[in-house]
Design a protein that fits this description.
Blueprint lengths: L2 E8 L6 E8 L10 E6 L11 E3 L1 H9 L3 E2 L1 H10 L17 H26 L1
Parallel strand pairs: 1-5
Antiparallel strand pairs: 1-2, 2-3, 3-4
């Protein structure tokens, strides 16, 4: 059985609340799970102690049994110091689009021309 440590959503519409659970990877997101390991409340401020609560011993038990944490849960575990921090690729999310890159190149070219023009004027 392939186990995952992941989030199961609860709460009402526009008021999310998540349980951190150990579940079979074939079960639906909010479906049956084997064990509840903690909670995550994104409504609370980031510096709040109650935002993420986990039973670290049980999480380590499931990790030793071969359970794979989801990306979000692995970030919680990294913050708690349970697993080592790993490198993540930002892919292309931070790169501007083609038109924005063209505008930036044009702006840089104009700035370079403007910088050259006063030098020529002062040389005369």
């Amino acid at each position: 059985m392939a186990m995952k440590i992941r989030l199961a959503r609860g709460g009402s519409k526009k008021r999310p609340f998540y349980r951190i659970v150990a579940a079979d990877s074939r079960m639906p997101r909010d479906g049956r799970y084997v064990e509840r390991l903690g909670t995550y409340n994104p409504q609370l401020p980031k510096d709040s102690e109650d935002r993420v609560k986990m039973d670290v011993e049980r999480v380590q038990h499931w990790l030793s049994q071969g359970a794979e944490p989801s990306d979000r849960v692995s970030r919680f575990l990294e913050a708690a110091g349970v697993v080592a921090k790993k490198e993540r690729a930002n892919l292309k999310k931070g790169v501007p689009g083609k038109k924005a890159q063209d505008r930036a190149e044009e702006k840089a070219a104009k700035a370079a021309e403007a910088a050259e023009a006063p030098e020529e004027a002062s040389a005369e």
